[in-house]
C-alpha cells in the first residue's frame, strides 16, 4: 500500500473516531448537562498535557530526523571515499589503475542497482557487495609502490579505503529503526490521552468544534506518521538518497 494512502487513511480514521465519539457522547449525555461550564482544574490539566506531549513529539521528530541525516552522511562519505580512490590511483601504472577503477565501478554499480533495493526490502547488505569491496581493498593494499611518487600516494589511498569501509559499516548499522518500542508506546498512549482530553472539555456537536477536534486529531496522526516514516532511513518514504553515488559515478 502506498505510504501516501496509509497517511490519508490514518488521518481520516483519527478524524472519524473523534467525530463518532463526540456524536455518541452527545446522544448519551443527560438533557440537563451544562456544557458551558468546565472545571478550571480540567482546563489546567489539558493545557499541560498538550504542552508535554508537544515537547515529546518535537524531540521524537528531531531524533528520527537526525538519524536520517546521519544515514545520508554515511552515503556521502562512502561515495566521496570511493571517488577519491578512483581519482588518486592515476599515479599508478595503467594496468593497476584501470583494474582498481573497474573494481570501484563494479562495487558502486552493485550498491546502486542491487544492494540499495536489498536494504529497502530485506534490511541488510549483500554478500556480493562485501566481496566487491574486499576486492577493492585487496587491489589497493596488495600493490607495492615502485617509485617514491607512488609511495606518497599509497598511504592516502589506504586511508580512503578505511573511510569507505567505516562508512559502509555505518550504513549497515543505521538500517534499522531508531525508536525503541517503549518510546512508541509512550507516543501512542500520549496521543490517546491528549485527544481524549478534548472530550473532558465537554466538546459539543457544533460544526466549528467538530472541525477543530478533527483537525487536531489529524495533525497528531500526521506527526506520528512522520516519525514512523523517518524512523527507518533506508526503507520508507523519505529515505536517504543515492544521489552522491550517481553524482560522482554518473557512468555506473
Structural features, described:
- This protein is mostly helical and 252 residues long.
- It has helices spanning 3-28, 40-88, 94-122, 127-141, 148-173, 181-200, 207-230, 243-248.
- The radius of gyration is 27 Å and the shape is elongated.
In short:
With 252 residues, the protein is mostly helical. It has 8 helices and no strands.
Which properties best describe this structure?
elongated; single chain; 252 residues; mainly alpha
Gyration radius from CA atoms, angstroms: 27 Å
Estimate the mean pLDDT confidence: 84
Structural class: mainly alpha
* Binned strand content: under 5%
Distance between the termini: 31 Å
What is the string of helix and strand elements?
HHHHHHHH
| Low-confidence runs | none
Query: How many runs of DSSP E, i.e. beta strands?
Result: 0
**Major β-sheet profile:** none
* Fraction of residues in H or I helices: over 70%
Q: Helix count, per DSSP?
A: 8
Shape: elongated
